[in-house]
Amino acid sequence: MKPGFLPIYKRDMRRFFRFKHQLLSSFLQPVLWLAFFGMAMAGNFDRIMGSNGSIHGVMEVSYLTFMCAGIIGATILFTNIFGGFFLLFDRNWGILREIMASPLPRRNIIIGIGCAAITKSWIQSVTILVFGMVLGVTFFVGMSPLRIIISVIGFLLFVAAFATAFLCISLTIALRIDSPEGFQGISSLLTMPLFFLSNSLYPLEGLPPLMGTIALLNPLTHLITGIRYCTIGEHFSSIGMEVMYNSTEVLFSFLYLAIFALVMFTITLKTVEKVEIT
Fold first, then answer.
1. pLDDT tens-digit profile of 72-96?
2. Beta strands, E only, 138-260
3. What are phi and psi of 276, to 5 degrees?
4. Could you give the CA distance from residue 114 to residue 136 in angstroms, rounded to a whole number?
5. Contact status, residue 250 vs residue 226, Cβ threshold 8 Å
6. DSSP bridge partners of 243
């Protein structure tokens, strides 16, 4: 017996691959950002820091490597915070009314779209990871094959939890907002503070105390912490700053994202069960 959410999942994935221009731009934007901005910033940091950027006895990684994890996190954020736009499109064109009038339980709509969002996020993040390594990003250095497999699984779990949470936020907005302009305005308002108040582009240790505290509450910070731990390691330095993680801290980050995803899924489920489509 097929899962009830499978038709919704298949429809969303077909739509993802069918719109070629959107598909291409969703891959090219982070790749170009990494290729141009990342390499330019890495070159400037290397020139400014010189030999002063090294910390004795600590593995040093380039800024390009440090930034690549941030680009992966930012891509997952931008993709999923705007992921509910298609639901708004379906709602305005009457397609959602037909889906909700069917015997399909409404929770399967959220589960199907959510599983599609996780799949798309995995495809994008792995693509950026591989392309980054082609450009010179040094991920998985010194790790055994078994450690690499475990790290990739952990990487994918972090991405799945984060993608679920922000896709649910986007779906909730889409179910409560009637206009595309309003949806895009709210989504854009959320993305910039989340992106810059995180460890995407710089270590948290360099932030002012208040901003650092706020950044610790940011789910994007916990996603990137997990990505860096899985792909770089628990102890390294970049742009003259030492970064250390431990298993307890990383486990906390994952639980933080998992609980956040569960809360947002519950809110979205209640919203879709109460909403009336006319």
1. 999 999 989 988 877 777 777 766 7
2. 235-238, 241-244
3. -115, 120
4. 33
5. yes
6. 236
Residue pair 272/171 in contact (Cβ under 8 Å)? The answer is yes
Is the separation of the CB atoms in 121 and 159 below 8 Å?
yes
Q: Which two tokens stand for residue 149?
A: 């497999």
Please give the DSSP secondary-structure letter assigned to residue 58.
S
- If one compares 274 and 51, the residue with the highest pLDDT of the two is 274
Distance, CA of 278 to CA of 275 (rounded, Å): 10
Alpha-helical segments (H) within 61-144: 63-81, 85-92, 95-101, 106-135
Q: Following DSSP, what letter does each residue of 81-93 receive, concatenated?
A: HTTTHHHHHHHHT
| Averaged pLDDT, 114-122 | 93
Q: Is 239 left (phi over 0), alpha (psi -120 to 50) or beta?
A: left
Residue whose pair of structure tokens reads 């959602």 in the numeric block: 96
Cα 264 to Cα 80, 116, 191, 196, 261: the distances in Å are 13, 17, 17, 22, 5
**Which residues have a Cβ under 8 Å from the Cβ of 23 and sit 6 or more positions away?**
16, 17
For helices 106-135 and 6-18, the axis angle rounded to 10 degrees is 40
Q: 10 Å Cβ neighbour count for 255?
A: 12
Token pair listed for 155: 């990487």
Residue 194 is inside which H or E element, if any? helix 180-196
Prediction pTM value: 0.89
Residues 177-204: tens digit of each pLDDT: 877 778 888 888 888 889 989 988 888 8
